[in-house]
Amino acid sequence: MRWLEAAWQEVLDALYPPRCAACAITGSKGWCEQCLNDIEYVDQPVCIRCGSPVAVEKFCASCRAHPIVPEALRAVAHYRGAVRRAIHRCKYEHRPTGAPALAELLVHGWYTPLTAPLRAADAVIPVPIHPGRERERGFNQSALIASHFCRRIGMEYLKGALERTVYRQPQVGLDVAQRRQNVAGAFQVVNPSTVAGRSVLLIDDVWTTGSTLNEAALALLSAGASRVFAYTVAHESFD
User: Residue 133: which H helix or E strand, with range?
Assistant: First the structure.
């Protein structure tokens, strides 16, 4: 019952005071005012395909040369400032309690014109990490973000539909070609019938070159998904 959930949340808040996802100041559920003002949202116009900022809404140079696999990809914010700090705290400082605040950015962006192409999706799948990596970290931040997002907007969450079967090394520090090779063939659909004919929305925390999202999308399309879109909290430009 909702009243019981609310009462339990009050108890948890008393025992573990809520903190800002980015700076950890107490008393701020999700984001403190200063960090919230520090978030740099992605503004239109953006590339029709990958959602990267462009001067005029059309395909960016990268998508004209090498289109990403998802039909459309969008990020809510730039991977800088408070958003970068929040993602780092969640992933690398083992703070899963920051995931709902990151998911709320996805909720905020979902109701804007920026994400209109993604709303053709009817189910959500988080980008998985390798089971060994998940055991080390204790959680998959993308799964936590996706689960909270689905509860907030009422989309179906296909838990465990996609798995990562290969883990080589983190993508950080690799160039474009190395990133592509590092995730080649890394994903597989557990039960193809769960995605057959579905329009799927992949959710991840951040994208840089799109290599991971491309491989995940390829696995879903090969398993029979009719359409694949992608949605991330942040976008990091790659130099």
Answer: helix 131-137
Report the Cα 232 to chain-centroid distance in Å. Answer: 3
> Which has the closest alpha carbon to 178: 135, 238, 117, 133?
238
Report which DSSP code applies to 149: H
Residue 201 and residue 41 in contact, taking contact as beta carbons nearer than 8 Å: no
Q: Which domains does the chain have, with CATH numbers?
A: 1-37 (no CATH), 39-235 (3.40.50)
Rounded to an integer, what distance in angstroms lies between the CA atom of residue 76 and that of residue 205? Answer: 10
Alpha-carbon distances, residue 52 vs 69, 203, 208, 236 (angstroms): 15, 17, 10, 10
Query: pLDDT tens for residues 85-114?
Result: 999 999 999 899 999 999 999 999 999 999
**pLDDT for 7-65, tens place per residue?**
544 544 555 578 899 999 986 779 999 999 999 999 999 999 999 999 988 999 999 99
